[in-house]
Structures are given as structure tokens and as C-alpha cells.
Specification:
The protein is mainly alpha-helical. It has 2 domains: 31-339, no CATH class; 372-491, no CATH class. It has helices at residues 11-18, 34-45, 52-73, 78-93, 110-126, 130-133, 140-155, 159-171, 180-201, 204-219, 225-234, 236-251, 262-280, 288-303, 309-342, 376-393, 409-413, 439-443, 459-476; strands at 400-402, 448-452, 477-482, 486-491. Strands 1-2-4-3 form a 4-stranded mixed beta sheet, with helices on both faces. The longest helix is centred in the middle third of the chain and has 34 residues, at 309-342. The two termini are 41 Å apart.
């Protein structure tokens, strides 16, 4: 199992949330609070066991599946609507980063899955089938509420997904005019999603925006022409398929002007949005929104009397092929996770704390993989060694943080985190030398800082973190203990 989101990564901040801390107020968080609220709810339900992360994903997946099914049922027949709802459930819950598969099983970067699901729910409404529009016109306000809730949740998730969601609502308004009641529905839905969380965050709203602007500045380096062109080139086949089906679906359209070219314009817009998201997510595969768009085309061609049987078959076949290609990796990963949960592979290591033993890490089969040293035996042994050091040389009342990409120890020892900290520190993704949280913000309220003597995760993440923050740690903390793997610094009194 990969280390992304692994042994306590992010879980220490979940423990902080359950102890009354607020993201972006009490600790640095380059995302919105939504993914951590979902996981914290699952962690609470599980009795703080590590399986709670899966519970949170399952709860969101169940809601997303029903939500997507109800929206798609108004726009397509029962079978494709059921398939679309099932696809959203799988997209929500697969325990693997988008575009990856076994052996990279992990809940790491699961917020990207949440983001694509919410964008899919927006597409269902903003690309409403005009053939059915008359049948559900009385539900215009309710449809607007659906999109408003999704947009509000995207604001609480990640800035890039929120901007794409707003762009979808505004761009596709040119293709399907929204009534006043529909816009009131959008506003009502957004308020319903946002107001309770914003009240809870209070002054943290400004901090949330500031943290995401900082992270956005860091991720901006990924938007260079060569990287975008490379990802687009790798996905050219999918783009061609999407445009061909869009042209077929538009060939029988009785619309005039811009509405006649709804599907080709939608294909270009959706693919471009997916491309930008994948590039800034540091991923280069998987376009789940293309599947949703194809299913919407299937629904419209099936309803239209003007579409030929060949057009309907071509749309259905393309949607089935792309859905199979996108869903198969997630389905295989989910089945692999279930199998390995009950029959762990040889060599899988467990963590010492009882509440973490449900998380098994094993070595990647390819020793040349860039993250081969950040998994399995080495990673588990390093964390267990750090746990033993803290148990021997610190008291249960002392808060702890780690000078690395993630902080596993607060959760591992079930110690209430001190003020400060972070959900994750990823150089080039959540901060850079020019755009970074201050050392005071990260370590200002903690008693102990654990510093690994060698990288736990990727070396290109580890080295900049030490270069930027270790001098501040050494000025404010004193070396209290060490092992061959760790330095343990305690705050100077």
C-alpha cells in the first residue's frame, strides 16, 4: 500500500478537529475543510480506528450515488441512470489515487475524487436535456439547489475545483437559459452548504482563502506549456472519441445557433477543465468527467425521435467503452483492497498502536519506483521506531509534530495536537520557498518536534522542508533524544 495518505497522514489533524480545532485557523491547510470533515466523521464513527477513513469515503459515496441517480433519472432511461449512479459511487470510494491502481492502494488525495464527483453533479443539471426540460420545468428551483449545494461544497474543498464548477455554471448558461427561480435555487443551495461551515470557521474563512492562494501559487509551476502538452498528448485518443460522439449527437439536433453545437462545445470545455485539473493535481491520467458527458449524450440521443439507431448505438458504445476503461481500474483496486484486507500479502507490516493495525503497508514490487523507499517495511519500521522513542522520552500530555510531509504521531499516540501544525507539507504543491507558512504558525503551539534523519516520503519533499524549517526548529527547540532514525526536539523553557 502506498504511503500517500498513509500511516496517520492527515489523521493527526482529524484528531485535532475532533478535539475542537478548526482547519486553517488552528493549523495550516492548503485545501478547504470538507475532505477533513468527511474523514473526521468516519473516524468518530469507527472509534478512532484507521478504518474510519474508509467509512467517511463510503458515506460520501452513498450520498453521491443517490444524488447522481436522481439527477440522471430525469435525463436518461433507468439502466444508464443506474450505471451512472454506480459509476459515481465507485469514483467516490475507490481506495487509490486517480489514474493509479494496485499496488498503489491508498486513500491519499481522495479529495480529488470528491471534486470530480461534485463537478459531475453540476454537469447533470447545467447540461439538462432540452427534450425533457418541459417535463421538469417545475423543478427548476430544486435543480438549481442541487447545483448550488455542489458549488458550495467545492468552495469548501479546493479552489481549482470551485473555479471549474463556477465556470461550468456560467459557461453552459449560454446553452440553456436559467430562470429566476433556478438562480434563486442555486443561491439557496450554496447558502445551505456554506453557512453552517462558515459559521463554524468564523475568522478562519480568510485563513482558508489565504492558505489556498498560497497553495495555488505553489501549484502554478505545474501549468507550464510542456507539461500541459504532454498530458494532452497522452489523452488525445479520449479527446478524439469525445468529439466524434459529440458531433454525432449534434448531427440530428433541431436547435439553432449556439445550442446546435452544445455537445461539441461541452466536450471541449469538459476536456479542457479535466486537463487543467489533472495537471495541477500532479496527476496525468483519468478523465472521469468525460464518462459523465458521454452518458448525458446517451440520454439525449435515446430520447430524441430525430436521432438514428446508428447514432444511439455509437453514443452508447463510446460511453460503455470509456466507462469501462475509467471504472475498471477503480473496481480492480477496490476488489484488491477488500482481498488484501482479509488476506494480507506476505511481508505486510503493521503499526504498533492497536487503532492503526487495520492499515497495512507492504513493499512496492518495483524497487526502482520513485516511492519504493516510502512504503512497506521501511516506512512502518521508521514510524514504529518514532512511536517507541516518544513513549520512552516524552509524556502523554506533550503535543508532537513531525518535520516531514505528514505528521503521523499525534494520531498514532492519540495525543491532542497543539496549536499549529499542518495537514500536509508538499513542496511545490502546498508551499514553496517564496510562498510558505511561517515556522511560528507550524510549530508555535507544539511541545515536541520529531525530525527524521532520512526521508520518510519522497526525497524531493523531505530536503526542502528541512532546508527551510530546520534552522527555526533548532533555534526554538533543544535536542532531547535521538535514535538512528530520529532526532526528538523539545521546546526550550
Amino acid at each position: 500500500m502506498g504511503v500517500m495518505g498513509g500511516s496517520g497522514a492527515g489523521k493527526s489533524t482529524l484528531l485535532g478537529i475532533l478535539n475542537g480545532q478548526r482547519p486553517n485557523v488552528d493549523f495550516f491547510n492548503p485545501l478547504g475543510p470538507l475532505p477533513y470533515l468527511l474523514s473526521a466523521a468516519g473516524l468518530a464513527l469507527s472509534g478512532l480506528r484507521v478504518e474510519g477513513i474508509g467509512y467517511g469515503a463510503a458515506m460520501f459515496g452513498a450520498v453521491a450515488g443517490v444524488w447522481g441517480y436522481r439527477l440522471s433519472l430525469n435525463r436518461m432511461a433507468l439502466v444508464p441512470a443506474s450505471l451512472t449512479g454506480s459509476f459515481l459511487v465507485l469514483l467516490s470510494t475507490a481506495p487509490v489515487p486517480l489514474g493509479a491502481g494496485p499496488p498503489s492502494l491508498s486513500h491519499g488525495m481522495s479529495y480529488n475524487r470528491v471534486g470530480f464527483v461534485l463537478l459531475a453533479l453540476i454537469l447533470f443539471e447545467v447540461l439538462e436535456d432540452p427534450v425533457r426540460a418541459g417535463k421538469i420545468r417545475e423543478g427548476g428551483w430544486l435543480s438549481g439547489v442541487s447545483t448550488g449545494v455542489a458549488v458550495g461544497l467545492l468552495f469548501l474543498l479546493k479552489a481549482s475545483y470551485f473555479l471549474v464548477g463556477v465556470a461550468f455554471v456560467l459557461t453552459f448558461y449560454a446553452l440553456r437559459r436559467r430562470s429566476l427561480s433556478g438562480w434563486l435555487g442555486v443561491a439557496s443551495g450554496a447558502a445551505f452548504a456554506l453557512i453552517p461551515v462558515l459559521i463554524w470557521l468564523r475568522s478562519g474563512v480568510v485563513a482558508m482563502v489565504t492558505d489556498q492562494l498560497m497553495a495555488g501559487s505553489a501549484r502554478g509551476q505545474w501549468l507550464d506549456f510542456h507539461r500541459v502538452a504532454l498530458v494532452a498528448y497522452r489523452s488525445i485518443g479520449e479527446m478524439i472519441l469525445l468529439l466524434l460522439v459529440a458531433m454525432l449527437a449534434s448531427g440530428w439536433s433541431s436547435g439553432t445557433g449556439l445550442s446546435r453545437w452544445k455537445w461539441p462545445l461541452a466536450a471541449l470545455t469538459v476536456f479542457s477543465a479535466g486537463l487543467m485539473l489533472l495537471v495541477t493535481n500532479a496527476q496525468d491520467a483519468d478523465f472521469p468527467l468525460s464518462v459523465v458527458l458521454l452518458m448525458l449524450m446517451v440520454g439525449e440521443t435515446a430520447d430524441s425521435r430525430g436521432s438514428s439507431r446508428a447514432t444511439r448505438f455509437a453514443c452508447l458504445l463510446a460511453a460503455a467503452l470509456l466507462m469501462a476503461a475509467n471504472a475498471s481500474l477503480d473496481a480492480v483496486s477496490l476488489m484488491a483492497a477488500v482481498r488484501e484486507k482479509h488476506s494480507p500479502p506476505a511481508g505486510a507490516r503493521q503499526f504498533l498502536p492497536a487503532h492503526m493495525r487495520g492499515l497495512l503497508l507492504y513493499d512496492l514490487p518495483d524497487p526502482s519506483h520513485p516511492l519504493a523507499g516510502s512504503n512497506g517495511t521501511r516506512y512502518t519500521d521508521l514510524i514504529n521506531n518514532g512511536i517507541e522513542l516518544l513513549q520512552a522520552k516524552s509524556s502523554a500530555g506533550e503535543s508532537v509534530i513531525t518535520l516531514e510531509q505528514y505528521n503521523p504521531f499525534s494520531y498514532a499516540l492519540l495525543r491532542k495536537p497543539g496549536a499549529g501544525g499542518f495537514t500536509f507539507l508538499a513542496y511545490g504543491h502546498s508551499f514553496t520557498k517564496a510562498h510558505k507558512p511561517s515556522a511560528e504558525r507550524l510549530f508555535g503551539g507544539t511541545d515536541i518536534v520529531m525530525v527524521p534523519k532520512r526521508n520518510i516520503t519522497a526525497p524531493w519533499m523531505y530536503e526542502p522542508i528541512l532546508r527551510i524549517y530546520l534552522p527555526d526548529v533548532q533555534r526554538t527547540f533543544t535536542l532531547a533524544a535521538e535514535t538512528p532514525d530520529w532526532w526528538m526536539y523539545r521546546r526550550r523553557r
